[in-house]
Amino acid sequence: MSAPKILAVASAADLDFRYGCTPAWWQIWKGLYEAGADLIVTPYRGRAIESPWWRTAPNPLYREAETFAAARSVAARMKGDTLIRREEHNPAESTADKLTRKAIWRYVTPRWQRHLEKILDRERDIAAVIVFTVPMAHFRGIPTRLRERYGVPVVFYDGDVPMSLPEFGGMDTGFNYYHGADPSEYDLVLSNSEGGLERLRELGARRAEAVFWAADPELFAPAPVDKDIDVFFYGYGDKFRREWMDAMIAEPSRLDRDIIFTLGGGDFRGDTGNARLLGDVPFNVFSQAISRARVNLNITRRPHATMYASSTCRPFELAAAGAAIVSNPNAGIERWFEPGSELRVVSDADEALAAYRELLDDPGAAEAMGRRARERVLDEHTYAHRARQILDLVGVGTPVSVRG
Fold this sequence. Notes:
The chain is α/β, with parallel strands linked by helices and about 400 residues long. It is built from twelve helices and 13 strands.
C-alpha cells in the first residue's frame, strides 16, 4: 500500500512569525510522516519551509500577504500599539473588517483556489486536503469546488477553539475566522476543544471531532542544565489571562522576594510584579528553558480554561519536558493529567505561593511529579497518537509498515 498523500494548507510554516500553532503544526506533520503519510505543505502566510518530513508548495500570495501585514503594523503603531486590539467579549465586526473580507474574496480567494487546483492536478492522487487554521472565511467556496472537481475530502483543523469563535474573535495577531465563513463546506472540522464541538455544529459544521494538542517527546524532553530559575512562565500576551498572571506571578513575587520568577515571551500589558523579563525564547532551546526552572506555570486563557476540555499546547509540552507544573483552574484538565499527582492546580495567589514553596522546598517531590507527567505524555499524549487519530478520522489509510 502506497503512502497516502495529504495536502496541508497551513496558517504558516515559518516559526519566526511566532504564531502559537506553528510549532504544533510542525510536530503534527512530523507525526503524520512517521505514521506513513506523504505531506505537501503550502503556507498561507510566509514562505514555504522545507523539512525532512514534508514536501512544500509555495505561498502563491507571499508578497501580498506581507504587504497587508505591514499595513496592519503601521495602523497599530498609529494607535500607539503593536497590534490592532479587539474587545475580549463579542467583538463587533468593524467596517474595515468587512471591507477587508470583501477584498480577500475578490482577490485572494480565487488565486488560492487556482493554486490548490494546480497542486491537485499535478499530484493527481491526493487523498485529503487539510486546512490548518487558515481563516475559514478566506477560503469560502474553495472546499466545495475541490470536492466537486476532484472528489477529495476537505478538512478544516481549528487549533484555537474557543478563542477562534466569533464571540471571542481570535487573537489580536489575526482574523476573526468565522465571520462570513461556511463550515458546512468541509467534510470534517477538527477542533482542539471537546467542549467547543457543539458550538462548531451551531456555526454549520456537518461533522466536528476533537483532537487534543500533544507534544513530541523527542523535542520536549528533560535537558541536562542547571536549575537557576525558581518559577517560570512562557507565553505571548496576557489577553484573557491577566487576572491569573496577577494571582500566580505578580502577587506571589511581591509576597516572597526570595523566589526567582522569570517570564519568557512578551506583550504582557498587565502587572508582572517583581518577575524578571527574559524576552523571546527561541524554539530550539525551549526545552532547556523549561528544564532550567524548578517550577513551570501553565496559565491558560479564560476562554480555554472555562470551556470543557479545550486543550492548549503548553501543559503537554511542559509535561513532556518533565516539568513540575502548577496550573490555574482548567475545566477538563483531568482528561489529560491527574491533578495532585502529575500537576498541581491552584485557585488563588495564596494557594499558588504555598505550592511554589512546597515544591521548591522538596525538589525530589517536584522531580517525581515531573516524571509522572512525562510518563503520561508518553502513554497517551504524543503527536504519534494524534497523527493516527487524525488519519482515522479523515478516513485515510496508511501503510502497514510505518517509519520509525
